[in-house]
Amino acid sequence: MTDELERLSVNETNALLKTIDDIRDRAIVILFLNTGIFITELTSLKFDAVNWNKKTLSIPGTRKRVIHLNDQAFEALAKWSKERPDKRTSALFVTTKGDIKNLSIRSVDHLIRKYADQAGIKKRVNSQILRNTFAVRLFSEETSIDKASAILGISDPESINRYILASKRPAEAVSHAKEIERVDRRHPIVKTISKMFPVKPKFTPRSFSEGGPASPVYNVKGPIVPSSEDVVFGREGLIDDIRSNLTKNQSVLLTGPIGIGKTHLLKYISTSLRQQALYIPSPSPLKNMLTQILDKLDVKWHDKLQARASTRGIVDYIVKIKGSKPPVLIIDNLGGLKISDVDALLNLLGNFTILAAADETKPKLKQIWWKFKQFELASLGEKPARELIKYLTQNLSISDYEMLETRLLTLSNGLPLAIVDMVNQISHQPVVTKDTIREVYHEAGVHYRDWTNVILFIYWIAVLFRFVALGTRSYESYFLAGFGVTLLMILRNVASLLR
Asked: What integer is the mean pLDDT of 10-37?
């Protein structure tokens, strides 16, 4: 009765597999040919269905069973695990283009027909034919009926008759390694090499064979929105210190290089204070800043203040209407303040609590800096930097998250803005591949060392040595020192070009 079943011959099977280069598609076809799984079962597989330690596959649905994976099937799944995009989905097989989602039955049937046509197979190949091919090969190895029914998940009489089964014994969650191994039709040399150098899955056995999630789900704070002002990483202690000082009406200044996260921190605190704070992007031009303060204090200030009021007149009016509980002024880029505007800001400092940020405390504005409690922001530590990367990349499909994380950590040097910029470089990609990760770049990770002083020191040593050689009439040493001086001058010029 198996002869009546439509199936693939050995030659057709080999031709089909030779046409498949895509790792995911190859794993799907090999799984059909080596387990006889139903297409509905395949599309319902979760990643934790694979036990990487025991090399078994737990089949879901009404025909629940555990099937032993031979080396060919295990190797195919292990290779796919390395290419499968990291995504918040537990499905084993997902799409690799566009929005990442579970692979549908229609998609699986389509890819099987596509490769069968490319292989020149005349019959209309589908998942059922692949299952039949497995079943016939399984029975040809003189597998007992009860074992075959357990592997195939068959229990109804019609199916048993179709596959020449007489037993109605229900499928058991057992592994029949020998029967499955015999279905592996690869060349003995290929099998031997595979055993000597087995392919290891990307994901650890603990993560997926012991009930863990199919993809890392990160315990992050706040909504999954990149660069959200509601989330900070690694600054919790600093924020507490800032709030403590603001509560005491002590103005605070944040300093640090560009990209260290000063602006983000100001916006975060501004958002948390809500109506009790006013965020001002820049103090220059001064009248723009004063206008923003007026809008915050009194929306009808236009009717009460002269149209051409002087800067001093505007500041005096602001002080007059500020009230008993004025808002905290949060001023970014305070280092851009002009010398002519110092008096106006000093007046504001005397009447408002100010939280500000500056890349550096320029000496010309030292009258301003003395009024602040200063905090210098340090680069993010490794742990908060990892948390930030996880947070920003949650909506991305990444083929190798560990590789991306390592590259971002290396190139960012702990600068949050560098991490954000590099994530933005890859955010438009449907799937972030390894090649895309290698192209990620940021200047923050490039360090230039100034060797000028070292070269000059060696240069003068060589010149002195040359005079000593000349005095002692050691002409070999004299010419050697001359050659060294010339070489050092060339190195100095090269160093200046590279800086």
From this structure: 89
